[in-house]
Specification:
By secondary structure, the protein is of the alpha+beta class. It folds into 6 domains: 3-62, Winged helix-like DNA-binding domain superfamily/Winged helix DNA-binding domain (Arc Repressor Mutant, subunit A, Orthogonal Bundle), CATH 1.10.10; 66-130, Nucleic acid-binding proteins (OB fold (Dihydrolipoamide Acetyltransferase, E2P)), CATH 2.40.50.140; 135-214, OB fold (Dihydrolipoamide Acetyltransferase, E2P), CATH 2.40.50.700; 223-456 and 564-573, no CATH class; 474-530, no CATH class; 624-704, Nucleic acid-binding proteins (OB fold (Dihydrolipoamide Acetyltransferase, E2P), Beta Barrel). 30% of the residues lie in helices and 28% in strands. The protein is built from 16 helices and 33 strands. A hairpin with an 8-residue loop joins β9 and β10 (160-163). α4 runs antiparallel to α16. The radius of gyration is 27 Å and the shape is globular.
């Protein structure tokens, strides 16, 4: 155990009371020549937020002083929420006056404030541990002697003051990148200087480049990575097959979207007779080529995940790997990690499983559309094209039904949201908003990947090997109570949520509202009431899936946790029990990797969402003055949030509701006309006209059509 761990363990003791640096030196009998090192260690731990130093110079764990470490999730209205590092803790509301200069995504330490009766927990920032926004992207507004950068990301809610000497040639209405020179203080905006001019706002490509810069998304791979790539072969070599199961004669296929190029999973199925089948999930062995500690590995960790923007992909791995030697292209030998799971179909149960390294050769590159056409529409042309694999597809579909039924019976929550795709022309202009349903083919792959992820994580857990789990904690009961109060307006209620809630109760509700007008609203609000799934080195289960053991193993081309998991699995296969030295190393590094990848995932989701929402607004620009049907998906004291059938969202301001004076009823989530008694509530269908679109503010203004 290192000095850091010894110190933290000492402070975790129930009998520990906050001590000064001198007192800690005495407790640990630190010799004189090592006191400087001890002092340095204390400073590092304080900087990390692992311990807290009080105004009296005493050190303790944050939790022992009612302090919590986490990240700020900012809101454009000027407040924020602390998302604690500890996934078991509820989010904490931070009012603007209590942010103390902290900004969106900053890592902070928060002190809990006294909790009012019936109110959610609030807190105040006592220390900013890590700044997340060194550079800000926005529109430059120039005056004679200074200027301001208005951030594109409204969650930052501060305009950046730019003194005359920091303008650096920027002009009015240009999209720029500003570097922060001094951080916000009480009654003072942050100050910065212009370091890059992206172009005039509205010019082709400038908007997406702004998103890339704002979130500091990676672009070109470093030269060192490119040099390492030259050493990686374009084909599987004979000497690389030693010790691997040869599965090249086993019929298997990849099933992906039409546009997919990084094919990292193939599936197979065998009828074993006597009502048993053997599912095979074969995942590209990326770890064979991306060795731990190399420049390629460090860059993959830094990126954390591939990012799928509306007009491009920013990959975690270079195309030579993601689209080449690691992609399971049909008819080509590829290295893989294979999971075989044997099921009994009646009564349905898992019988056995096996995890091994392998060499495979995918037979076909199939698409979701093709599989649906075969299984649902009996497309004879496609049946003839894939005739030797159609029986396997039919058997796979039987297994899909069994897996899906079992999962939902145990309480797995199934949110019904169509995937939104914005189709662009060759100039990057949006020409269509397409809603794509999660069909039978997508479900088939989803169920098989979930099955493989479950098996792998449970296997590693039982072996006691350090691992990265995909965890999803139970929702906060306060949030669920609020949600329960809201759904009473529709005649629904959740049973048994006084002390805890089982996911089955939530799934029962979703099944009850399926096909009803209020379905999308209730799905949306329930999702908002849930906590976010994260990566963690310790397992607490996955609430949303109603699964005790879960991990991400099936996408090592585009997710770093999967890549790390592959390494651990392969080591356990080849060595059995891992050496103590390796276990110690993993125990030290995995918490950092898990936290970092959770943050990178959040960044990717933010970038993907921002790029889609921006293009959705751009698509609506030529539709100002047109009427659309919509549904109310938010009610506030300042207006109604409306979602159109194409998922575009906008606001009807109370100022523009001229027929009456409307009062906000917080308990019933509705606006009520003072004189007419007219009510607008969540889930109501309305007809609106597009009044105005502001791309800078990312806002659409609607007017109600009476």
């Amino acid at each position: 155990m290192g000095a850091k761990d010894k110190l933290l363990d000492f402070m975790r003791n129930k009998a520990y009371r906050p001590l000064t640096e001198k007192e800690l030196m005495r407790e640990f009998n630190v010799p004189g020549d090592q006191r400087e090192l001890m002092s340095k260690l204390l400073k590092e731990l304080v900087k990390e937020g692992a311990i807290y130093k009080s105004s009296s110079g005493r050190y303790s764990l944050p939790e022992k002083m009612d302090l919590i470490v986490g990240r700020i999730d900012g809101n454009q209205r000027g407040f924020g929420f602390l998302i604690p590092e500890d996934p078991t803790r509820e989010d904490i509301f931070i009012g603007r006056e209590n942010l103390k200069g902290a900004m969106h995504n900053d890592k902070v330490m928060v002190r809990l404030l006294p909790r009012g009766k019936g109110k959610r927990q609030e807190g105040e920032v006592v220390k900013i541990l890590e700044r997340a926004n060194q550079r800000i992207v926005g529109n430059f507004e120039k005056s004679k002697y200074f200027g301001f950068v208005v951030p594109d990301n409204k969650r930052l809610f501060y305009d950046i003051f730019i003194p005359k000497e920091g303008v650096n040639g920027a002009k009015q209405n240009q999209k720029v990148v500003a570097e922060i020179v001094s951080w916000p203080e009480k009654n003072r905006n942050p100050e910065g200087r212009i370091v890059e001019i992206l172009g005039y706002k509205g010019a082709p490509g400038v908007d997406i480049e702004g998103i890339i810069r704002q979130l500091d998304l990676p672009r070109a791979f470093p030269e060192e990575v490119e040099r390492e790539l030259e050493m990686i072969p374009d084909e599987v070599l004979e000497e690389e097959l030693t010790g691997r199961k040869d599965l090249r004669d086993l019929p298997m296929v990849t099933i992906d979207g039409e546009d997919a190029k990084d094919l990292d999973d193939a599936v197979s199925i065998e009828d074993l007779g006597e009502g048993k089948v053997r599912l095979g999930v074969h995942i590209a062995d990326v770890s064979h080529y991306v060795k731990e500690g190399t420049a390629l590995d460090k860059e993959a960790l830094e990126r954390g995940t591939s990012i799928y923007l509306v007009d491009r992909v920013i990959p975690m791995l270079p195309p030579k790997l993601s689209n080449g030697i690691c992609s399971l292209n049909p008819g080509e030998d590829r290295l893989a990690v294979s999971v075989f799971i044997t099921y009994q179909l009646e009564p349905f149960k898992l019988m056995d499983y096996e995890i091994s390294t392998s060499v495979i050769r995918s037979k076909y590159r199939m698409t979701y559309t093709e599989v649906k056409e075969i299984l649902v529409n009996n497309n004879q042309e496609l049946i003839n094209k894939y005739q030797d694999f159609v029986p396997q597809l039919q058997l796979m579909n039987q297994l899909r039904e069994k897996l899906r039924k079992e999962r939902f019976e145990k309480g797995s929550i199934n949110f019904q949201f169509p995937e939104v795709r914005v189709i662009l022309d060759e100039l990057g202009k949006p020409v269509e908003i397409r809603l794509e349903e999660h069909g039978i083919a997508e479900q088939l792959i989803e169920e098989f990947m979930i099955a493989a992820n479950r098996v792998v994580s449970e296997d590693m857990s039982w072996k006691g090997i350090p691992f990265i789990y995909r965890v999803h904690d139970q929702p906060d009961l306060d949030r669920l109570q609020e949600f329960n109060t809201f759904i009473h307006n529709f005649g629904y209620f959740l049973k048994g949520i006084q002390n805890e809630v089982h996911p089955r109760a939530l799934q029962n509700l979703l099944e009850e509202v399926e096909g009803k007008p209020e379905e999308r609203i209730i799905n949306t609000l329930l999702l908002r009431s849930m906590k976010k799934a994260i990566y963690a080195p310790s397992n607490i289960g996955h609430f949303g899936l109603a699964i005790d053991y879960y991990s991400h193993f099936t996408a090592p081309i585009r997710r770093y946790p999967d890549l790390m998991i592959h390494r651990i699995i392969k080591e356990s296969i080849s060595r059995g029990m891992l050496p103590e030295k390796r276990i110690a190393q993993l125990e030290k590094t995995l918490p950092h990797i898990a936290e970092h990848c959770s943050l990178r995932e959040r960044r990717a989701m933010e970038a993907e969402s921002d790029s889609v929402e921006l293009k959705k607004l751009e698509y609506m620009l030529d539709k100002i003055g047109q009427e659309f049907d919509g549904i109310i998906n938010g009610v506030t004291n300042y207006g109604l949030f409306i979602e159109l059938e194409n998922t575009v969202e906008g606001l009807v301001s109370v100022e523009n509701m001229k027929d009456d004076y409307y009062i906000f009823n917080e308990k019933q989530y509705c606006l009520i006309g003072e004189h007419t008694g007219k009510v607008y509530r969540f889930g109501d269908k309305v007809r609106v006209i597009i009044d105005n679109i502001d791309l800078d503010e990312r806002e659409i203004d609607f007017l109600l059509v009476e």
